[in-house]
Design goal:
alpha/beta, Rossmann fold, 2 domains, seven-stranded mixed beta sheet, 7 helices, 26% helix, globular, binds S-adenosylmethionine, SAM-dependent_MTases_sf, Methyltransf_25
């Protein structure tokens, strides 16, 4: 899990979400919070933050962060979270773990149920049109991630919207860690229709972290969803 943090440092996406929350203190729900970098950043800005993740090991790292005690950590899925929130976020492309329409719609409905009037849900997913998984095939020789001398994504398989791959980390002492993941690359049209069905009638889309509109080559599909 420390590996996850080394590979996913603070970036323009984090700035985007922090700016979206703004200054007056909000009640924020961070869904799929992972190791909690974003959740603790929100809390340091004075927001009241609840952060939920199904992975206990991720939450262990999150809880032990400096000022991790400022956040209410919940082990589980969004449906298990109590409370009402002004802003829900799902960062780090975590949305792509939702692998089909049924799961995604149930998820979006569960998020909406937890928003107060005027509340928003913001998240991003990688644009399938940019075919980013093709770049993942290149071995990252020589990169250093928490003592790992090389990382690579191998056995990349694409079936429809789903891309599966194995991530490999090799350490100087010869040990190797690998894990297999599957992510969905849903189109903007698919996500927009599901969000609408879940009640998110107001949708603002961006194609990058500078808030440019979505274009054919945009790498990100960023949605800030609200309702009347
Ligand atoms: C790529 S990480 C992103 C973590 C964090 N949001 C970030 O930006 O660094 C994906 C996270 O989603 C969590 N996750 C997996 N399935 C989930 C689900 N059904 N609902 C919410 N989170 C889930 C994983 O445990 C993991 O912590």
């Amino acid at each position: 899990m420390a590996l996850y943090d080394m590979e996913n440092p603070w970036g323009p996406d984090s700035d985007f979400y922090l700016a979206l929350a703004g200054r007056p203190a909000l009640a924020i729900l961070d869904i799929g919070c992972g190791t909690g970098m974003m959740a603790t950043a929100f809390a340091r800005q004075g927001h009241a933050v609840t952060a939920v993740d199904p992975a206990a090991a991720m939450l262990d790292v999150a809880r032990s962060r400096p000022q991790g005690q400022l956040v209410r950590w919940v082990h589980g899925l969004v449906g298990e979270v109590q409370g009402s929130f002004d802003l829900a976020v799902m960062t780090g492309h975590a949305f792509q773990v939702l692998l089909d329409d049924e799961t995604t719609l149930a998820f979006l409905r569960a998020v909406k149920q937890r928003l107060s009037p005027g509340g928003r849900f913001a998240f991003e997913t990688r644009n399938p049109d940019a075919r980013i998984w093709e770049e993942w095939a290149k071995p990252l020789v020589g990169s250093s991630v928490a003592g790992a001398t090389e990382t690579a994504h191998v056995d990349i398989e694409k079936q429809g919207e789903l891309v599966s791959f194995r991530s490999i980390y090799r350490f100087d002492d010869g040990t190797e860690i690998s894990s297999r993941s599957t992510l969905r690359f849903a189109s903007q049209a698919t996500i927009s229709a599901l969000a609408e069905k879940a009640g998110f009638s107001r949708q603002i889309w961006y194609g990058d972290w500078d808030r440019q509109p979505v274009e054919a080559g945009s790498r990100e599909l960023i949605l800030v969803a609200g309702f009347a």
